[in-house]
Amino acid sequence: MKPNRLVLLSLLMCTAAFAYAQQPIVGLITKTDTNPFFVKMKQGAEAAAKADGAKLMSAAGKFDGDNAGQMTAIENMVTAGAKAILITPSDTKAIVPSIKKARGAGVLVIALDTPTDPQDATDALFATDNFKAGVLIGQYAKAAMAGKKAKIATLDLAPGITVGQLRHDGFLKGFGIKEGDPMIVCSQDTQGDRAKGQTAMENCLQKAPDINVVYTINEPAAAGAYQALKAAGKEKSVLIVSVDGGCEGVRNIQAGVIGATSQQYPLKMAQLGVDAGVAYAKTGKKVSGYTDTGVTLITDKPMKGVDSKDTKFGLSACWG
Amino acid sequence: MAATAPTPVIEARKLVKRYGHVTALDEADFEVLPGEILAVIGDNGAGKSTLIKALSGALVPDSGQIFVDGQLVHFHNPVDARRHGIETVYQDLAVAPAMTIAENLFLGREATRGGWLGSMLRLLDKKKMQAEASAHMKDLQIGIRSMKQAVETLSGGQRQGVAVARSAAFARHVVIMDEPTAALGVKESNMVLDLIRRVRDRGLPVILISHNMPHVFEVSDRIHIQRLGRRAALVRASEIKMSDAVAIMTGALEYKAAA
Amino acid sequence: MSTQTAAAVSPGVRSLFAHLPPVATFGPFIALALACTFFAFQSDRFLAGQNFSLILQQVMVVGVVAIGQTLVILTAGIDLSCGMIMALGSIVMTKFAVDLGMNPYLAILCGLLVCVAFGFLNGSLITYVRLPPFIVTLGTLNIAFAITQIYSKSQTVAGLPDAMLFFGNTFKIADTSVTYGTVLMLLMYLGAWVVLRETAPGRHVYALGNNPEAARLMGIPARRMLVVIYTIAGLIYGIAALLLVARTNVGDPQAGQTDNLESITAVVLGGTSLFGGRGMILGTLIGALIIGVIRNGLTLMGVPSVYQILITGILVILAVATDQMSRRKA
Fold first, then answer.
1. Residue A39 belongs to domain spanning
2. Which residues, given as ranges, of chain C have pLDDT below 70?
3. Domain count along chain C
4. Which residues contact residue A72 at a Cβ distance below 8 angstroms, ignoring those fewer than 6 apart?
5. Torsion of CA A145, A146, A151, A153, to 10 degrees
6. Would the pTM of this model clear 0.95, i.e. be above it?
7. Which domain holds residue C130?
8. Hey, is the C-beta of C306 within 8 angstroms of any chain A C-beta?
């Protein structure tokens, strides 16, 4: 009696394990797991995995730039049998060897949000066109100035980070000027931090009190800049533009803190990524190339010649 | 010659201290008389430092008694011993090198200003401490002019002087000195030996622990020889040869007290 | 080492050096004066009352954090968790006031208590479990950060009651607006200076760092003091949290992440030794001001931010080198 029961039990367990093992495994590796952008991405990936009948493994670096943590995560996921890995690379160059190894083991690797360097080191890229995001708000700012002489301050990220560089350059292009144009009266780094954005804006205002356009790398920096402008009594006369489209940022547009923001869609990135990964696991079909996950200009004060949507839409599509 | 022997300033009877199987103090006795310099010598492992630690409150013996001025006392920590007027000059001096001479002299016992500033905020009376430090140093004829100098700017002998002056300033019964000349050259050692004599001349008996036989014989009145956890001999320095003292220390010679 | 070089120099010169305070005392101040002079010539907007008020506001939060850091470093310890404790405190006080509708003063008190608790945790682990300060505060840094993110769900807290923003309010001196927060910072530095220089417990802090064994032998309650120092540091980080909230108008869970290194930089630039036992609290204020002046001055000159980082790094090396060399001469 007893041995038979044992055989039956182990047979059942094997079947269950086998069935479970048939669930395709997709891995998601983000830069950190505290930035609301990546939190939303992970939520989107989990939902998509559930819908596709796949199992999601997730990991993150400990801080922005933690390449070692992401390398370890890739290795662990490949060992655990992931068929596809989605990654927002912290160090776009240094992660390439690990990705190559994973792809060599037959794993599909898709970059989300940030391209690797070189971009074709991954099978595919699902990302915001950060340059376009900058162009949109640059065009908006130009139109909003309506021919008035602009005095521009750029509150950037930090030296050497691609995302920051792309958005900055895009803004300049959209505004119609080149780097070094005399209209740009101040450029300072903020590391995307609210308090540092405030300090940078204060110092820029001290240098050029008549600044009337402020480009900011993201919405926390924009909020900090607004604080500085408010303390100087200039918040009504200065236009702040930003990128991200987080729910807090969209609410700041409603409140009149930020003039316009380029909204990006981490949820969509994750969804497309998981779908592509599952498709590969099931059919072997690889996805390739760059898929623009879209960027929308959100503002409550639309300008002629620049497509935009209002904050109602923004709130429905926001993240964070 | 006095008819009755004077009361020892510190006396210890039958001190015992064991560490597991090792007996560091095996019913050790000890006494130091007023106005004398008593050297404590003994080979490594004789129980010298254990004995001194018991007397200065750094450890509690398993059994035995300690008397200060004839009164039975129990020391649980160095602060207890200090409260009974026993000060120790440690081998590594226990000074804060970056702080001034005056600050080191009063370390842990700073003089505070009067009134609520002193009692509540413990605001320092720096002038008083500097003046008193100066006076103590002058008293012992230690030639350092400014009490505001950092101790680390002093020579080895001068630093020793500061440590000795600190103990002499606060001691009421005895000053214990642990290897005071060990790290010093000839000239500075002589300075320190002079210093020890001056401390004794001010009325404070000195217990001197040293490995340096010439120094021991140059400055001590009596010598306590420690061996195998007990007192092997207590003799006047003038009544014993240096080679005999060393022999008793190592056990080559058995000491027989005069009847 | 010191006796040999001392022997090479004549006794008169040696005692002269002994009487002078080390270069570390004046070095930072001279560096600050030089920087200000330089920037005054580079931009006519530098030497303005309003600009200086601005710089004070910008260094205010890190400046206050650095007071706690100085106390800890004087005991030969280090506190890597300062910024995270501050962030946690700011989230607690703002969320209690906004989400729970608590009386703002009570909410502030709660925030301060949380910071004090973390400071006490640091001190206890270091003293009673005998773990190195670097490791302990590395651990509490992460714990405080995680709690902050979990409790705030990584969202900023806005809509704060006016009472909480008091230290951001300004008053006028001549034509310049000065915030109450910067005044508080200066008062705190003054208070710390008096305590460290003129009171017995203050001198004991130095003794603890310079020779902990000597301090212990002289009857200074070393273990109790260390716990108290880390706890007081926690309270100071809590006050910094309130100043941060008043300056930025929100409770920001992402705040303070670089404050540990920035406060240590201010302490080192101010001439305090990382080995403990020597240094001046006012030096830390000057160190913080040096960082702020350079950031402000270079922005006014239009120099890219990366050069601020370069210059700060060079200054840190110079500060430590001059301190070491001046001590070897004496």
1. 3-128+266-287
2. 1-25, 326-330
3. 1
4. none
5. 30
6. no
7. 57-257+272-278
8. yes
